[in-house]
UniProtKB/TrEMBL annotation:
The lineage of its organism: Bacteria, Bacillati, Bacillota, Clostridia, Lachnospirales. One of its GO terms (molecular function) is ATP binding. Belongs to the ABC transporter superfamily. InterPro entries: AAA+_ATPase (IPR003593), ABC_transporter-like_ATP-bd (IPR003439), ABC_transporter-like_CS (IPR017871), ABC_transporter_ATP-binding (IPR050763), P-loop_NTPase (IPR027417). This is ABC transporter ATP-binding protein. It comes from Anaeromicropila herbilytica. SMART domains: AAA. Keywords: ATP-binding, Nucleotide-binding, Transport. Residues 5-230 form the ABC transporter domain. Gene3D superfamilies: P-loop containing nucleotide triphosphate hydrolases (3.40.50.300).
Length: 244
């Protein structure tokens, strides 16, 4: 299979603090890869270094065979990105924001079809400021998909969504995956990870402590559920039980 994202020996420090240590990831075309870890484990720094928005201290990254730092303009014609903390003007309508995003790319998907797919068509003429938190989150996913990317990065993609809305997103992403879209995501919802991810990586204090399939994570931790395996690998099971 074709390797779409290749990360080798990636490290990043802030002064004496080692945020990411010797990270290695390989994602194939049409695969969904989930990068997991507790807050502060190094997920955001890892993604920023992979995307080239933050400079790594060492290591190499290739996305679609391109260097995200030196070939940024060419690469970003084929990559979509949705960050959890996205900032867009409030005094602009949903359709205006979509059209503005469309104008940045040579090729793009009809945003109206995406709005329908993510159940936002009725909000087309609404101001972004009028959307609920969950609606904004779905809109940010739509914006990431407008350039018809080959790879999309989704950070906490269903935070703030209710159960029905989360399942709408899952079905839409599964459909896109079947069409060959490569998805790199982060999530704190283990049910979401089980539904969507072909493989996962679990970070603990900047180091990859597990890399493989969901089933392999469960089996190698001697647990019966992914949630318990995740707590095992992130060394949070004691904290979890103390809070019950």
């Amino acid at each position: 299979m074709e390797t779409t994202i290749k990360v080798e020996n990636l490290s990043k420090s802030y002064g004496s603090f080692l945020a990411v240590s010797d990270l290695n990831i390989s994602v194939e075309r049409g695969e969904v890869f989930g990068l997991l870890g507790a807050n502060g484990a190094g997920k955001s720094t890892s993604i920023e270094c992979i995307l080239g928005t933050k400079k790594a201290d060492s290591g190499t990254v290739s996305i679609l065979g391109m260097n995200p730092v030196t070939e940024r303009k060419k690469l970003y014609e084929q990559v979509g990105v949705q960050f959890q903390e996205s900032n867009y003007p409030d005094k602009i309508t949903v359709s205006e924001l979509c059209m503005e995003t469309q104008s940045l790319y040579k090729t793009f998907t009809d945003y109206k079809e995406l709005l329908k797919q993510f159940h936002l068509m009725e909000k087309e003429k609404s101001m972004v400021s009028e959307l609920s938190g969950g609606q904004k989150q779905r809109l940010f996913i739509v914006l990431a998909l407008i350039p018809n990317p080959e790879v999309v990065f989704l950070d906490e993609l269903t935070t703030g969504l209710d159960v029905e809305a989360r399942r709408v997103v899952w079905r839409s992403l599964d459909e896109l995956k079947r069409k060959g879209l490569t998805i790199f995501l982060t999530s704190h919802y283990m049910d979401e990870v089980e539904v969507l991810c072909d493989r996962i990586g679990i970070l603990r204090k900047g180091k990859m402590v597990f890399y493989g399939t969901v089933q392999e994570a469960i089996q190698s931790s001697n647990c019966t559920k992914l949630e318990d395996a995740y707590l095992y690998y992130t060394d949070q099971e004691g904290l979890n039980y103390e809070s019950i």
